Amino acid sequence: EQLKQAYRAFTNAQFAECKEFLENVIKSIPLIAVATRSETNDLKELLDVSREYLIALRVKEAMADADTARSLELAAYFTHCNLQPAHLTLALKTAMASAFKSKNFVNAASFARR
Predict the structure, then answer these.
(1) What's the pLDDT score for residue 8?
(2) Which residues make Cβ contacts (< 8 Å) with residue 19, sequence separation at least 6?
(3) Counts for the chain of helices (H) and strands (E), in that order
(4) Alpha-carbon distance 98 to 112, whole Å?
(5) In 3D, which of 75, 81, 84 has the Cα closest to residue 107?
(6) Among residues 55, 47, 52, which one has the least CA distance to residue 24?
(7) CA nearest to 78, candidates 103, 65, 61, 102
């Protein structure tokens, strides 16, 4: 349930709320008792997804504080996080727009192709 809320917050660009939800998910995983191997695999997948989104959020936060060159580099890193397809599309559009605004047409074209 909290993962769905985190997805919604990420889609709506409410990154602080998304980070809270994901941190709560990660903190609650060690407290869950599982009985089967499939449940264990589900929890590992949940941990991996939460970790990837937290990494993406940290990169996104760092983009706001960085200068133009560093911001472009972080935007490129942001596109390599394992996000849901809709969220990856948003990341690629953002990276493409920022590269285009900085007249970095080669990278903008690369993001557009992906």
Answers:
(1) 94
(2) 54, 57
(3) 6, 0
(4) 12
(5) 75
(6) 47
(7) 61
Q: Would you give per-residue pLDDT tens digits along the chain (114 residues)?
A: 889 999 999 999 899 999 999 999 999 999 999 999 999 999 999 999 999 999 999 999 999 888 889 999 999 999 999 999 999 999 999 999 999 998 989 889 999 988
The answer to pTM > 0.85 is: yes
Beta-carbon-side half-sphere exposure of residue 86 (alpha carbons within 13 Å): 6
**Could you tell me the end-to-end alpha-carbon distance of the chain, in angstroms, rounded to an integer?**
30
Task: Tokens 């557009």: give the residue.
Answer: 112
Query: Which tokens is 35 given?
Result: 């009985």
Closest CA to 73 of 27, 41, 111: 111
Angle separating helix axes 15-28 and 2-11, nearest 10 degrees = 160
Residue type at position 27? K
Closest CA to 10 of 86, 97, 77, 92: 86
